[in-house]
Specification:
single chain; mainly alpha; 2 helices; elongated
Length: 111
């Protein structure tokens, strides 16, 4: 019986030693993989930041361009309205009439 207990203890010791060896091996592998991933991230990080800055600049330029176009259109509409106010009233009335007809037609279709 003592012999079996001794052999079980030896087996457990061997398993514990193997566990520790594998644990160290796995930790080294994880550490190496982490270093490689960090290296790749560090390599592409400046490129991504540069591209993000470019996109931001492009967006600002686009928004400024759209704002200018809208302002120009608003000024043009204001000018045309001042030149011929009755025409503007007619266009607004016709637009309102057509919108009213479309909305009314839609309302009847839902019933």
């Amino acid at each position: 019986m003592a012999n079996k207990v001794t052999s079980i203890r030896k087996a457990l010791d061997i398993l514990n030693d193997a566990k520790e060896d594998k644990k160290d091996e796995i930790q080294k592998m994880i550490s190496q993989e982490y270093k490689e991933i960090k290296s790749v991230v560090d390599e592409i990080k400046p490129k991504v930041q540069h591209k993000a800055a470019q996109l931001q600049d492009d967006m600002v330029q686009t928004v400024n361009h759209i704002n200018k176009k809208v302002t120009d259109l608003k000024n043009e509409v204001d000018q045309k309205t001042k030149e011929n106010p009755w025409k503007a009233v007619g266009v607004a009335s016709a637009t309102a009439f057509i919108m009213g007809m479309l909305i009314n037609k839609r309302g009847k279709q839902r019933l």
